[in-house]
Amino acid sequence: MKDPTEFPLLHLPLLAIKEVLSTLSPLDLVNFSLASLKSKKVAKYFFNQHRELQYRLWLDIEEELAVGIRGTEKTYYFKLISDKTKDGLREGDKLFKYSEDPLTDFKKYVEYAIETFCWPVSQLYFDLGAFIVQNKSIIDWLKFQVEPFSCFYLHSNIISDEYVSYFLNHIEVDSYLDLNTKMSDNFQLIIPGSIEKLVIDQSNFVTIDQLSRFDCELIKLCHTKISNQELSQFFKNWMTSKSNINLQSFEIHIENREALEAISNLPHKVIDPERVRTFHRWYHPFPVTGGIDIKRDDGKIATFFIEDDMEFLNLVMITH
């Protein structure tokens, strides 16, 4: 943190202080507030008068711990490091701080930002392999320190059944889950009803029965073992309103275009390959040329097409 003597503006009139504070980045605003009890009160008062700033926190719990402070278009990062030579250095919008106990100092910084400025935590990146022994205590800390997350990303190179289950049982999530963790083949993933968007990067454990229970609006599965025959049954269940009623977008990695056979044995309509329609996926509009349509028993339509994302082919389903 900066030395309190670096803040002579505390001796200025309050109006002048406000003008100076309005030019500070959120990183410098936090540092200023840490200079003394008086500076903390001034910074807290200033921010309470400027709620339109709407800063929020992004937490990176990885081998290198970081707190991101997101404003309008920029994200500022406070990063805890083990290299003393970089203590206090800045690289663009990043501020580096040396710590002998990074996890403890990380928690203190987050708690301080929440308590002083009421900045909510909107995103979490959590490497379950970075602090294995402390995973559950970190999750317990998150539960009592932050409000529901808008979205979170869990990843690891270790079998993470226990930690993923513990996380989902203890942390409330508003909207988005990106799961990129190794799981055992028989893992049963229970998704909270509040999750609207679900991405599973290593979905070898996901069975057709589990998929049918994921009542999300958007689902993406990568590296899956689900067969074309199982996909056909999944789409049939959707057509008869037996599962995934709220589904708006579904993507799944496929090995080849034969996956379209999962649709060919269902009632369907092949769209003119010259016809271009505009749909929405992840809330963004995009054009689709041709495609194949199926209809649900309540009249809702799902359009299928194959998308090449360089490394894989994706079978995409958009409902409308």
UniProtKB/TrEMBL annotation:
Domain of life per record: Eukaryota
PROSITE patterns noted in UniProt: FBOX
One Pfam family hit: FBA_2
UniProt feature coiled coil, ranges: none
Signal peptide per UniProt: none
Start and end residues of each F-box domain: 6-61
Descriptive protein name: F-box domain-containing protein
Organism: Caenorhabditis remanei
